[in-house]
Specification:
mainly alpha, four-stranded antiparallel sheet
Length: 458
């Protein structure tokens, strides 16, 4: 809930609603940089003469006027992650505010509706999604069939452990270590019982991929390159701490069970495929074409675990398939590091185009799930686990490449180089009239601007 820190309550009502919008975007997973930019665009569209300024931190939004011209109002992000459906609804609301299809005075009811959207059977969906993600990554990196089956079982176990521990606030901090330790112990015991010898790296990493903080690290990099040093550094440290917990869990489980990871299996997406195996049965490798099945299983797992509907899940499958195709084509030509940046830029521009069509699919919904393939968190976990010089040097280079690619894509998408629809002209708002009474909101009527105010510019 927003809290007024100074000024008149009536005059700060509209600023409170802007703070509500900023808090909603933070809960939806947007970075501090993107949230502040979105609030600036909304204020420019809804009230170009208000002269508001915004301070955005990872969990706090402050809205005020230049030199104290408007009261300072703050809001704090709520605990818990939004589902993909909630993220999509939040970003559609943002688009409506930017185009003045809705007024800032009327967003209270919409925000309440978005927050009430739940995840039916959230625990079961999380467990099933974790299992699908484990299967998808194991197939994608051509693990043996026994590792694929074990990844399904271990992934479901990781999902159950994390779902149960996250219900206890104090225990949620050690979920990455506990879940990773149990997963590695399971894989190590199975390998020792079956006498398998060294196991592929992703037989260990695939079941715990759902815990990798890829979005946190990606937002940190975006914020660091936008001069949000404090928030970006805090997010980056938080992401690295989680990766450190997971690495310690893998190393501890390996030491307790005598598990040995095959160092030659630390491949990244786009690397030259492993040669066909002469083994048969459960020790055989899946064919090369099965990687596309892994991409589909991975995308479906993300959709199931993070609460996407059928349509958004289908978009996620298409986005991941396009990302994988780009990496497969570009990596042999320019290397996996450069290919990551090119794929990130291309996918970002494509998602912006999709966002501005009649379908109005939010960019974050189609772009962010594919980050699991671009893999800032996955690359870091591989580097920390193998401790090989090549992997350790590839991790920061992949981070930088992905960040630069995303920034380049943002520049291309936000300029007039592409024939993208323009935003609608701004509509009048009570923010432009600080001396006026706040706009009254009728919960049974959705106020809209007049037709000459909401029609897009030609």
């Amino acid at each position: 809930m927003p809290t007024q820190t100074s000024g008149d309550p009536a005059g700060s009502e509209a600023q409170s609603r802007l703070a509500d919008v900023g808090v909603l975007l933070l809960d939806a997973g947007l970075s501090v940089t993107d949230t502040r930019g979105a609030l600036v665009r909304v204020a420019a569209a809804q009230s170009p003469r208000a002269g508001l300024e915004f301070i955005v931190l990872p969990t706090t939004v402050l809205v005020g006027g230049r030199q104290g011209a408007a009261p300072l109002v703050g809001g704090r992000a709520a605990a818990g992650d939004f589902s993909i459906v909630q993220t999509a609804a939040s970003l559609r609301l943002l688009s409506s505010l930017e185009s003045c299809e809705e007024l800032i005075e009327d967003v209270g009811r919409r925000i309440a509706q978005i927050r009430k959207l739940g995840r039916p059977l959230a625990g079961l969906r999380w467990i099933a999604g974790s299992a699908l993600i484990g299967i998808g990554l194991a197939i994608l990196f051509r693990c043996p069939w026994w590792a694929i089956a074990l990844s399904a079982l271990t992934g479901a176990l990781v999902g159950a452990i994390s779902a149960a521990m996250n219900r206890v606030g104090a225990a949620s901090a050690i979920v990455p270590f506990v879940a990773t330790l149990v997963s590695t112990l399971t894989v190590g015991c199975a390998a020792a019982w079956l006498g398998l010898g060294p196991v592929p790296l992703f037989a260990v990493c695939a079941p715990i991929a759902i815990l990798i903080p890829g979005a946190t690290i990606t937002n940190a990099l975006l914020e660091l390159t936008s001069a949000d040093i404090v928030t970006g550094s805090a997010r980056l440290i938080a992401g690295l701490v989680v990766l450190g917990f997971m690495t310690v869990g893998i190393l501890a489980g390996s030491a307790l069970t005598g598990l040995h990871v095959d160092p030659g299996s630390a491949a990244l997406i786009g690397d030259v495929p492993l040669p066909p195996s002469a083994s048969i049965g459960w020790s055989a490798l899946p064919p090369a074409w099965a990687a596309w099945t892994g991409v589909g299983a991975l995308a479906c797992g993300v959709g199931v675990a993070f609460g996407a509907g059928p349509q958004l899940a289908a978009i996620g499958v298409c986005a991941m398939a396009a990302t994988y195709a780009l990496l497969e084509v570009l990596s042999p030509q320019v290397g996996s590091v450069v290919a990551t940046g090119i794929a990130g830029a291309t996918l970002f521009v494509a998602s912006r185009l999709l966002e501005r069509t009649r379908a109005a699919v939010p960019s974050a919904v189609s772009f962010q799930p594919a980050f699991l393939l671009l893999g800032p968190g996955t690359v870091g976990l591989v580097a920390l686990t193998t401790l090989e010089p090549t992997s350790l040097s590839a991790a920061p280079l992949a981070f930088v490449s992905l960040c630069i690619g995303t920034k380049v894509g943002s520049v291309i998408a936000d300029t007039d180089w592409l024939p993208l629809p323009r935003r609608a002209r701004s509509a009048p708002s009570s923010l432009d009239r600080p001396d006026a009474a706040p706009h009254s909101v009728d919960p049974h009527h959705n106020h809209r601007p007049a037709s000459n105010e909401s029609e897009p510019s030609p």
